[in-house]
Task: structure prediction
Amino acid sequence: MKYKLIKTRGYARSGIMYINNYKIKTPAFMPVGTYGVIKTLTTEEIKKLGTQILLSNTFHIWLHPGNKIIKLHGDLHKYMNWNNPILTDSGGFQIFSLKTLNKIKEEGIYFKNPNNGNKIFLSPEKSINIQYFLNSDIAMVLDECVSYLTSWNYIKHSVSMSLRWAKRSLKQFIKIKNKNNLFGIIQGGNYKDLRYFSLKGLINMGFNNYAIGGLAVGEPKHTMYNILNYICPKIPENSIRYLMGIGKPEDIIESVRRGIDIFDCVIPTRHARNGHLFTSNGFINIKNSKYKNIIKPLDKYCDCYTCTNYTLSYLNNINVCNEILGVRLNTIHNIRYYKKLMLNIRNSIILNKFELFAYNFYKKIHKNIPKLNF
Ligand SMILES: [Zn+2]
Result:
């Protein structure tokens, strides 16, 4: 995998990520297909919305349908009928976020299967093996994701262990001759020295591309931006910088302003299922009765199937009575909104107009563009 930097504007960058014969234009956003499915959409539809790459969760797919079923199909691409690139996470984050954690030890993570309560064990090697069976184009190392409230001493201990896990992951990745790509994950909570310690350790092991984990886990926004301000310029220029689990459109713009290249998040799809939609004039709840009689498109600037074929009134009425079509139409719109957002960000960087784009974005949602406090 190679990353070609095309243009920078301040710290913001636009480039191309070459993965297994595919070109991913960055900054890019990956929708999340937890079980190998973007809920309510076919892969054909996801492609038509302009999705370049999507994320799938190793942990969930490991538990259901499991390795055997995936192997019967060949790999995850064939299982879900998706030829474009897939990034898989390592599984560690879900174990923490789903509170199924039993014990974390040097050898790996002992946890309870959330579906049946059975005890399971996930090691760095096992996570790499599962991601190999899935044949994900980008695999992630197993790491420990800790709460932002954790002490410096604990995080120091945790980052050291995550570095040893990263080393074991890389060793296993090479041993099984995986020809895809493996990213290291920078941890370290809100402590700059530990973030640097983590990055330095990964660079010394020979990782070429880096995810930033353990952010957007409840810490104040300015804390997250301070960490990005600090760590992004220290990541080698020719490496991909992937911010895990981010975020809302504002978070994406602010992170691009600090040098992030790729993102994943459940927000566009999860919000769609709750009737929360992103439009060029800001965020709306389509179930609000004020849309009941409005015979206009959801977003006149959007070219998606939903906006070109249905009215706000129709969307309001089918969402209020929880019709499945409502979720489908909402999901189509939100994914397209994110796709267009990334496209506009990319183009504005290339045309030296990124600040103007960000200024206009905030103006439309009646906010001032935040200052960059480097
Ligand atoms: Zn739309």
In short: The chain has a mean pLDDT of 96.
